[in-house]
């Protein structure tokens, strides 16, 4: 190219780049209200945002990947834990974590009921923002997973053995025939329901998270049903597990981490979000944990 051609190329390229940038900027602003769920910004949400900033929560936690990365990302916390759990947790975090065992302790902020309600409303608004998978690898609450999170090849291969059952398949999962073992199908539901059971429950013995470990749940349930401590309506293990999924407050597992004021922290949404077949598959999987 000669000097004139070079100058012309630079001018045209700069003009095209500027036009593309302005077009993308305009398109982003056009979609902001829909992407951010702006119509749901209520006075309670605004108050919760102010509580978030006033208490410097960002010094430890992150939202949309923005923060200190010392404590869990809270972008989807209302979907992983639920309002009942968060209310009890924010009132007195010391009931949920032990500084000696966990090497950290969420400080008690002495928040008012109004502040707690606002903070939960703010978290709920954040959880419904279309963040398009950002951050790609957040620091999550113990044991939880989010759709789109990186998965190892071994995990993907394992997932490929499990029927979809109406729930979106993870990356790398192959189509299956639908003739798989109900226990395998139930394991898939266990890991991919919303929120995933793995967000609160471990299958390792003695590893209690937001919910008790499910290792050996069948044997423990048999002992519970034979005692005077059981307060629900189930007559056998399968019925108890079904009851625990669709009506978690029918019987409360002892412990401040699992319930408050007679209400279980277990989500009450599975009865409508899962099909009857999926619940039966989940029960079959839990029944296998002898």
Automatic annotation (TrEMBL):
Gene3D superfamilies: Cytochrome c-like domain. Keywords: Electron transport, Heme, Iron, Membrane, Metal-binding, Transmembrane, Transmembrane helix, Transport. One of its GO terms (molecular function) is electron transfer activity. The lineage of its organism: Bacteria, Pseudomonadati, Pseudomonadota, Betaproteobacteria, Burkholderiales. Residues 155-181 are annotated as: Disordered. The chain crosses the membrane at residues 7-26. PROSITE patterns: CYTC. Residues 43-127, 181-290 form the Cytochrome c domain. It comes from the Bacteria. This is Nitric oxide reductase NorC subunit apoprotein.
């Amino acid at each position: 190219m000669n000097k004139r051609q070079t100058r012309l190329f630079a001018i045209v390229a700069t003009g095209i780049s500027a036009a593309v940038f302005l077009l993308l900027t305009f398109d982003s602003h056009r979609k902001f209200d829909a992407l951010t769920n702006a119509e749901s910004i209520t006075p309670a949400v605004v108050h919760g945002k102010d509580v978030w900033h006033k208490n410097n929560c960002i010094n430890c936690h992150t939202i949309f990947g923005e923060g200190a990365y010392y404590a869990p990302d809270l972008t989807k916390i209302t979907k992983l834990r639920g309002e009942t759990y968060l209310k009890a947790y924010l009132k007195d975090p010391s009931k949920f974590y032990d500084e000696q065992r966990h090497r950290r302790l969420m400080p008690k902020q002495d928040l008012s009921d109004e502040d707690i309600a606002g903070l939960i409303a703010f978290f709920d608004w954040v959880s419904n923002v279309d963040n398009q998978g950002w951050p790609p690898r957040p620091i999550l609450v113990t044991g939880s997973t989010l759709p789109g999170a990186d998965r190892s090849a071994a995990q993907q291969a394992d997932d490929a053995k499990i029927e979809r059952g109406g729930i979106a398949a993870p990356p790398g999962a192959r189509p299956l025939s639908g003739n798989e073992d109900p226990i395998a199908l139930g394991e898939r539901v266990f890991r991919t329901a919303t929120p995933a059971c793995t967000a609160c429950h471990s299958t390792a013995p003695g590893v209690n998270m937001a919910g008790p470990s499910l290792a050996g749940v069948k044997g423990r349930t048999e002992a519970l049903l034979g005692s005077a401590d059981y307060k629900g309506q189930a007559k056998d293990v399968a019925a108890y597990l079904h009851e625990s999924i669709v009506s978690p407050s029918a019987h409360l597992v002892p412990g401040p981490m699992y319930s408050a004021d007679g209400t279980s922290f277990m989500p009450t949404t599975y009865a409508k979000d899962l099909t009857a077949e999926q619940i039966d598959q989940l029960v079959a999987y839990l029944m296998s944990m002898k």
